[in-house]
Each structure stands twice: as C-alpha cells, then as structure tokens.
Predict the structure.
Amino acid sequence: NYLTSGGTPFLLNESQSTNKLINSVFISSNGFNPSNYTFVNVFGTGSGTMLSSSKNSNVNAFNVVSPNTRVFLQQSQSFISGVVNCFSIFIESVSTNLQVNRVIGIINISGVSVYYKNNVLISSTTLVEAAATYSVSFTPSQTASGDVRMGLGVEGAITGNMTFSMPQLEIATLTSSFIPTTNAAATRNAD
C-alpha cells in the first residue's frame, strides 16, 4: 500500500480489523457457487459463475447475469445495535448502468446505510464502475441477524452483468485493505 500521487509518497497505516465474512476468497465445494453463501436466483432466469479474479490471484471472483431479475450471493451475519459495520466488495467488471444500492447491501435488519466508492462518500444511486471498491457503512438500530447481499438486484429486479470479488464485513465506518478468510472470520493485526 505504498502510493504516490504526484507528490510526497505516503504509507497506509491500518488499525487491527476483522473480516467477519466466511470464505471471502470464494472457494467452492461444488465448482459453481462459493461455499458459505446462499446463491439467490429469484426468478430462475439469471446465472452465477465462479471465475479467476483479475484483481487478486489468491481469490476467485463471481459473475452474475440478470435479465430483469435478482441474482446475488447472501450470507447471514449478527449485528449489534449502534455498532457501525462496513460491508465492501471489489467490482471487477460491469456491463451496464447499475446503482450501488442495487448491487451491495445489508438487508432484513433496520438501520442507516451510507455508501462509499474507494472510501469516498457517494449517493446510494451512484452508478458503479469497474476497478473500484464499493462499500456500505451500516449502523443497525437493533441487535439482530441480517443478510449481507452482493450481486444484481439486492433490492428490486434489474438487468445487468457484473463480476465482483473480495467481499469484506468489518466493524468500522470505512473499508480497510482486504483480509482473506476461508472457514472462519480472520483478523489482521495493526500496522
């Protein structure tokens, strides 16, 4: 994470963080869908396919195609009232105009959602672009289980084609660098 932007180089110094999602590297036991996720294909006309990630050679990506339907991956998680969670995905490719709140979200629990692109605040209706990390900062108003969803039509049917990878759910306002997980949550120590 050593970057330069036309001036003095700087280092990213991150605090300790835990990725609460199970199998963020998208390992599949059946060759079709990532283990520990529910693949939802609401009307049965969409599709989902495992691919090699173009961003990170150590993870897989997932491609969803939706002809005016809802096709997404979902994983249930526990949330604590008032504790901010950040759920993020990396968009590898996208073929059509898709609003961020239609491709990533935390559902089935009440609370306040705020959206970001590469940790910069955006509107919930901002169109997603390839080669960017999109996140939703979610503050639940109750202690309960909810579902993190990623794909096409997480809220309402849409048409599109999108590939995404590296999902992450942290107790934080903004996303940090990717923390790979397989069979359990994983913690990255502070820099």
Q: What stands out?
A: The mean pLDDT is 92. The chain has no helices and 15 strands.
